[in-house]
Amino acid sequence: MLKIKSKILKLKIVPVVIDIINKNLTKLNNLTLSGKLFFIIGILILVIALLIGGISLALATNIVNKNAERALVTETKLGAVLITSFINNQFEPLNSLINTYSFGGMPWATQQSILNEERVKYQEYMDFGIVTPDYMCRYASSDTRVDFSGQNFITRAFEGNSTVSDVMKGGANNGTMILVYAVPFYQYEQVAGVLVGQMNTMAINNVARLIDFGATGYTYIFNQKGQAIFHKNTSLVTNGFNPLEAVQSDSSLRSLVAFMQRAMSGSPQNIAQYRYEGVDIYGGYAPLANYGWFLVLAIHKTEFSSALTVFRIWIAILILFFVIVGFFIASSVSDSITRPLNRLLPAFQEVSKGDLTVRILVVSNDEVGEISARFNDSLRNLAQAISNTKQAVLRLNDIVERLSEMMEHTNDRTQQISQAVANAKEESVTQSLLVLETNTAINDIRSHIEQLNQSVENQGIAITQSSTATAAMITNVKSVAESLNRNSRLTEELLEASESGKKGIQQVADIMNLLESESAGLIKASTMIQRIAQQTNLLSLNATIEAAHAGLVGKGFAVVADEIRKLAENTSVQGRAINKVLSNLKDKINEATRFSDVSQERFNTILQLIDRVQKQETVIKESMKEQTRDSFQVSDAMQKITKNTDSVKYGSVQILQASQVILDDMQKLTGATANVNKKVDEITSEVDQITSAIKALATIIAETEESVTVLSGSVSNFKTEGEITLRRAGYE
Q1: Which residue, of 130, 434, 564, 716, has the fewest CB within 10 Å?
Q2: pLDDT tens digits for 109-127?
Q3: Are 698 and 422 in contact (CB under 8 A)?
Q4: What pLDDT, in 10s, does the model give residues 82-113?
Q5: Which long-range contacts (CB under 8 A, 24 or more apart) does 70-73 make?
Q6: Taking the model in full, what pTM does it have?
Q7: Around Cβ 115, how many Cβ atoms within 10 Å?
Q8: Residue 388: which residues within 8 A CB-CB, separation 6 or more?
Q9: What span, in angstroms and rounded, lies between the C-alpha atoms of 595 and 633?
Q10: Distance from C-alpha of 222 to C-alpha of 121, rounded to nearest angstrom
């Protein structure tokens, strides 16, 4: 369904009203109340009339458009059904031929003869033909061949579907626009070929022309490629017009292309608007089932919305009538409201001149009568208030004069007090400065003494620590000397043990060498035993052979030979085992010999190091003796410094105590001076406040005098019933 813009926006009611108000706002301020009421009520009625008319027009437009769209969509769908039915009917002759003849098993000559005979019967077809599986088609009447390779409708026919081609050029003169209908035929339950029939597009054009809508409505058909299949402008079909391709060079076709793409996308609304050749068009669209075509029923937008014209005229007439009646009502209402108010103007004019004795005659019980009664009451109350004000003004004048005299006397006395306080404050400030300087000097002295005392304490602690460290150092020196003596003895013992170990290692090496030579002899003996065992084994083998030759006589000798053979084998096995053990033992002895050689070298290194240690211990002993003598001298000097430090510390403590007493006294004096300054400041502040209050009061009195003068002049302009009484009382 199309989106219909609101007619309220087209009428531009809000901008018009705002423009009228902006242009007449200045003039409105200069109008009378009657004119303002007439203007406001008239504008309100005008806005209401325009709103009602706009809403009515929008609702009517929406209803009419919906009905027109519904009718256009319905007609389009019926047209699509009609075209689809017509196409389906064109397949009946082809299906009848296939059911009558078995084209799958016939030669071409027979097929051609049958098709030419049947073409006379079905004159709506221009020609019949047979398409073989190689996509080559032969027509019966002209015996021409056409290659349908790449034609989707033939491909679909070989898949078992009845299809129709897009519009193409054909016929006898090869210039007529035709449609080719295709139906498959079978042989052995497989598609053996396709029967096709040419038909002039005028047949489907005649059916499409029957579908119309209004005076400007027309129908056209296009395929999924965008090519025109039928159009009232036959040149578009003949020339193969395709907006999807033409839009590349003609941008005016964009809206038409968008419409066609919307139809091909399967949009469910089935209606859209586009512009073609400068004309706004509404188009209903519907797909032709199974053929990939789309039927469009188009109508000019002007005719589509022409039904609203008469309704819009009547709406405009009703709005004009409503506005005229509204302005008449606005005039009557404004006059009825302002007429009673105009009667009140003379009374207000007299009151503005100062006459409070005037009264308004109450002639009605409505709001205006109530306002008049309240106005009379207000005038009475105002007259009484003016009379009371005049009396108060006269009394206030006397009070102001007496108050002015008292303020002058008070101001003189305050100035004298302020001068005395200022002098006292100057002396107090001088004293405070002297006390602060003295206090600062004492604080500096005390700080230096505290630093001196702290330095003395730190020196005493350092001396004590030095004495302790010196004593500990002497003790450590003694301990080191004793340790060196013990180390010297241990070094001598280590030297003796090392020499003894070296000798023991030499003895072990000698024993190892002896074992190595002896093990070599044992290995030779073991080898000799193995050779004897091998020879014995051979002898036992020969004896066994000879015993076998001897037969029963040699059986006992064979047993003895067998035992000898076993003994020889065991001896050989044991000899090999002994030989292996002796070889391992020799390897271990060789390894032990190498270790003993390394140990001898290490013992030699140890003996050299022990000798160096003994020499260094001798040097260290001499140094430790000299360090012990120097440490005793340092200890004596530290004891003397400790005694002097104690004396200095005692003196600094005495000075620090005395400075603390002086500092406490100075702090008390500083506090007393600060209190005096604080009291003087408080007195000064109070005096300043009194002076400020006097000045403010003098200002207030002066302003009061001016106000009394102004008030007296203001109330004298009013005429009240109590004026005679005031004059007799002597206040004027």
Answers
A1: 434
A2: 999 999 999 888 888 898 9
A3: no
A4: 888 888 898 999 999 999 998 888 899 999 99
A5: 71/213, 72/213, 72/271, 72/282, 72/284, 72/297, 72/299, 72/304, 73/270, 73/271, 73/284, 73/286
A6: 0.41
A7: 24
A8: none
A9: 57
A10: 31
